[in-house]
Design brief:
alpha+beta; 3-stranded antiparallel β-sheet; about 90 residues; 3 strands
């Protein structure tokens, strides 16, 4: 392998998308449906209620069923009070 190819491969390895477990979205299953139309109707209803993201995934034996999953953005965390390191004990 030439030097330029090795450099390219090293560069690609550095840019791999390594996600932090804290940043991963936690999807929750809302329902399981036997047809895509039923799942799509549920998705539309959920989007009207204010859910951030909804997706339909095919699953089951031979992919004959559809599940609706939702994700809602977590509320922003409040900053904890900072401790004064110079405080006299």
């Amino acid at each position: 392998m030439s030097k330029s190819k090795r450099r390219k491969n090293l560069h690609l390895d550095d840019n791999k998308n390594e996600t932090d477990p804290k940043e991963c979205k936690k999807w929750s299953r809302v329902g399981v449906f036997s047809s895509y139309e039923e799942a799509s109707n549920k998705k539309k209803a959920l989007l009207e209620t204010g859910v951030d993201e909804v997706k339909i995934k095919r699953f089951g034996q031979e992919g004959l069923k559809f599940q609706v999953k939702t994700w809602k953005a977590p509320a922003p965390k409040q900053n904890a009070k900072k401790r004064n390191k110079n405080r006299v004990k």
